[in-house]
């Protein structure tokens, strides 16, 4: 089976675990979630665990929200 990959989020490195914000389906809220990443290229990165196909994550720099478990999108 093909590996799951996503556009590379800001500040995420290959072969690492990172806390990223994942959009809740049908909501204007994103929840922090730990994701394990594998191989990466300049613009895409492999997802080893923590995300399911179809889930959407925020790609922009969210370091200003490092202490938050959820953020509201407007």
Main beta sheet: 5 strands, antiparallel
Average pLDDT, rounded to a whole number, is 94
Strand fraction equals: 35-45%
Low-confidence stretches: none
- Taking all Cα atoms into account, the compactness measure Rg is 12 Å
Tally the structural domains: 1
**Please, how many helices?**
0
Protein name: RND family efflux transporter MFP subunit
Organism: mine drainage metagenome
Supply the key terms:
74 residues; mainly beta; 5-stranded antiparallel β-sheet; RND family efflux transporter MFP subunit
Task: Describe the model.
The chain has 74 residues and is mostly beta strands. It is built from no helices and five strands. The protein has one domain (5-72). Strands 1, 2, 3, 4 and 5 form a five-stranded antiparallel sheet that branches. The N and C termini lie far apart (37 Å).
Present the secondary structure layout.
Elements: E1 5-7, E2 17-23, E3 29-40, E4 44-49, E5 70-72
Antiparallel strand pairs: 1-4, 2-3, 3-4, 3-5
In a few lines, what is going on in this structure?
Helices cover 0% and strands 42% of the residues. It has 74 residues and is mainly beta.
């Amino acid at each position: 089976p093909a590996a799951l990959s996503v556009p590379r989020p800001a500040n995420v490195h290959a072969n690492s675990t990172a806390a990223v914000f994942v959009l809740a389906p049908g909501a204007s809220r994103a929840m922090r979630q730990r994701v394990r990443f594998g191989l990466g290229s300049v613009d895409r990165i492999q997802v080893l665990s923590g995300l399911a196909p179809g889930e959407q994550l925020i790609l922009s720099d969210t370091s200003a929200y490092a202490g938050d478990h959820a953020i509201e999108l407007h």
